[in-house]
Specification:
The chain is of the alpha/beta class. The protein contains 10 helices and 4 strands, in the order αβαααβββαααααα. The protein has helices spanning 4-7, 27-30, 36-44, 46-59, 100-114, 117-128, 134-162, 170-178, 182-188, 190-206, and strands at residues 13-15, 64-70, 80-85, 89-95.
Length: 208
């Protein structure tokens, strides 16, 4: 099984320029940016739509939310990420060639993961200030991701009770495995830990 951290990792990168988008995030506004398959899922599953609507309301924090799709070039790349454009816009990235339920699981996860943005930036600032090692930075990110994964799983439980098709999602099964304990999540996330640590070390090396 592919490491969970490669499947769902959060990119807490923030752009400095923010589009002036002021209205609240809703499923209706998000839908045009979704794949036809995921739009169809939300049209047919009332519970999945309701859960996503609550997730948007509780995690968007005044931001508009958009989904962007990207090609996953190799197995080390994540299946999803998020990118903040200042305080007004959040882009959730989803890799192509996934099932609609896989996309749904990752979308709910990344909404929860985006709540970690401030904490992720605090970790990064500590790295740049020399207060945190690259390895500790990576471990800190994994702890934040684990907490987001647990929150996302709680949200999706009501969907699993009424939509048996969710059980066919590989991402959902990986979510279940990854939320058994922090220790297990960290073990499943060894490649992601190394990716985070290596990136932090490279940046620190340019500052020496």
């Amino acid at each position: 099984m592919v490491s969970l951290a490669i499947i769902i990792t959060g990119c807490a990168t923030q752009k400095t320029e923010s589009p002036q988008v002021l209205s609240a995030a809703t499923v209706a506004k998000l839908q045009p940016t979704l794949s036809p398959e995921l739009r169809g899922l939300l049209d047919h599953s009332l519970e999945a739509r309701a859960v996503l609507s609550r997730a948007l309301a509780q995690t968007s924090r005044g931001r508009q939310v958009r989904v962007r799709y990207y090609y996953r070039n190799d197995a080390r790349e994540p299946w999803s990420d998020y990118l903040e454009y200042g305080p007004r816009l959040l882009h959730v990235g989803l890799a192509m060639s996934q099932t609609a339920w896989d996309e749904y699981v990752l979308l709910v996860f990344e909404l929860e993961n985006s709540v970690n943005g401030d904490a992720s930036r605090e970790l990064w600032a500590s790295v740049l200030q020399g207060k945190l090692s690259a390895s500790d930075y990576a471990s800190g990110l994994l702890k934040l991701e684990y907490a987001a994964l647990c929150r996302a799983k709680v949200r999706i439980e009501s969907v699993s009770a009424v939509d048996p098709q969710l059980a066919e999602s590989q991402r959902y099964h990986e979510m279940i495995d990854g939320t058994q304990s922090l220790e297990k999540y960290v073990k499943l996330s060894e490649i992601a830990h190394d990716n985070y640590a290596n990136y932090a070390e490279k940046v620190r090396a340019t500052q020496r």
